[in-house]
C-alpha cells in the first residue's frame, strides 16, 4: 500500500497550503503537519519554506514532489493491474472539468461509470477552462475536461463530445417573438456572458471575430462566473445570454426560454480531454474509453 505521507505531501505541494490539503484529503490540519514533519525528519531536509502565511517548495521539496508523483502513478497502475486479475478495477482518479461539463455532462456519466467500476474512486474539481488547465499543470488533477479552444502546447487535447452554444432570451422578452436575429441586432441587444478565462467565452469571441465582430462591439451588460447565474439573470431581465444548449434543454421544453438563431453565426465547439503529454495512466484510459464509447469523435 502506498505511503500515505506521499499523498499528503503531494496535496500540500500542489496546493501550497496545509489548510487546503486538509480539506481536499478530509483529514485534520495537525495530521497533515505530522506527515510532513515525518518526511522531513526521515530525509533530514526541509521540504517547505515558510514565508509569513505562505509556503513554497524548497529544492528538496521539488525533488520530493517529482518522485512522489511518479511513485503514486506507478502504484495506481499496479493497483489497477492487480485488481484486473480478479476482474475488478480499482484506484483513484482525480478529474477536473470546466463548469458546463461538470454541471450538465458529467453527473449522469459518472453515475453510470460508478455502476461499472465501483472500486474506482473519482474526485471532481470544477472551474473554468483556464483554472482546470492550471490545476493539471500543478499536478492537482490527473485528467482535465475543457471547452473549446486548444491552448497550451505542453498539453495533449482529445475531442470527446460535440456541443453548441446558443443565444437565448426569456419567453416574455419581445425578442422571443423572433426565430432569428441579425448581427446588427446582436450588437444592440443587452447581453450577459461568461467571465474571462471561460472556455465558453473563448469560443464566442473566436466565432464573432470570424464574422468581423469584437466583444467590445457588443452591448455587454454583465459577465457572470457560472452558466446558472446567466440563466437566472436572463430569466429576470430583458437581456440575452449565450450558453451551451445542454444547459437549457429542459427550460426550452418548459417554455421558459426561447433560443434565437443568429444570422450566419453557428457557434459549435468540442469538449476535450486535456492531459500532460506522455504515457496515459491506465485509469485515465479506462475513464476516457467509457466516456467516448457512445459518441463519434
UniProtKB/TrEMBL annotation:
InterPro entries: LysR_HTH_N, LysR_subst-bd, WH-like_DNA-bd_sf, WH_DNA-bd_sf. Keywords: DNA-binding, Transcription, Transcription regulation. It holds the Pfam family LysR_substrate. The keyword Transcription applies. It comes from the Bacteria. Residues 1-58 form the HTH lysR-type domain. SUPFAM superfamilies: Periplasmic binding protein-like II (SSF53850), Winged helix' DNA-binding domain (SSF46785). The keyword 4Fe-4S does not apply. Belongs to the LysR transcriptional regulatory family. This is LysR family transcriptional regulator. It comes from Segatella sinensis.
Amino acid at each position: 500500500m502506498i505511503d500515505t505521507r506521499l499523498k499528503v505531501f503531494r496535496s500540500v505541494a500542489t496546493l501550497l497550503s496545509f489548510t487546503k490539503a486538509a480539506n481536499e484529503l478530509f483529514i485534520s490540519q495537525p495530521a497533515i503537519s505530522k506527515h510532513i514533519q515525518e518526511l522531513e525528519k526521515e530525509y533530514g531536509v526541509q521540504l517547505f519554506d515558510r514565508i509569513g502565511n505562505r509556503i513554497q517548495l524548497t529544492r528538496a521539496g521539488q525533488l520530493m514532489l517529482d518522485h512522489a508523483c511518479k511513485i503514486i502513478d506507478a502504484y495506481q497502475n499496479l493497483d489497477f493491474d492487480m485488481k484486473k486479475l480478479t476482474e475488478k478495477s480499482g484506484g483513484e482518479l482525480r478529474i477536473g472539468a470546466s463548469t458546463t461539463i461538470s454541471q450538465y455532462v458529467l453527473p449522469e456519466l459518472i453515475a453510470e461509470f460508478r455502476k461499472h467500476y465501483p472500486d474506482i474512486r473519482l474526485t471532481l474539481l470544477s472551474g473554468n477552462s483556464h483554472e482546470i488547465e492550471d490545476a493539471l499543470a500543478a499536478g492537482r488533477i490527473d485528467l482535465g475536461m475543457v471547452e473549446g479552444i486548444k491552448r497550451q502546447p505542453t498539453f495533449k487535447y482529445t475531442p470527446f463530445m460535440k456541443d453548441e452554444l446558443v443565444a437565448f432570451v426569456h419567453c416574455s422578452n419581445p425578442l422571443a417573438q423572433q426565430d432569428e436575429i441579425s448581427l446588427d441586432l446582436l450588437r444592440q441587444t443587452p447581453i450577459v456572458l461568461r467571465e474571462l478565462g471561460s472556455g465558453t467565452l473563448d469560443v464566442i469571441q473566436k466565432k464573432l471575430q470570424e464574422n468581423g465582430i469584437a466583444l467590445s462591439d457588443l452591448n455587454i451588460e454583465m459577465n457572470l462566473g457560472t452558466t446558472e447565474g446567466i440563466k437566472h439573470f436572463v430569466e429576470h431581465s430583458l437581456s440575452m445570454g449565450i450558453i451551451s444548449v445542454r444547459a437549457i434543454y429542459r427550460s426550452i421544453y418548459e417554455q421558459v426560454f426561447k433560443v434565437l438563431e443568429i444570422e450566419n453565426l453557428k457557434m459549435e465547439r468540442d469538449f476535450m480531454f486535456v492531459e500532460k503529454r506522455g504515457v496515459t495512466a491506465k485509469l485515465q484510459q479506462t475513464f476516457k474509453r467509457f466516456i467516448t464509447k457512445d459518441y463519434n469523435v
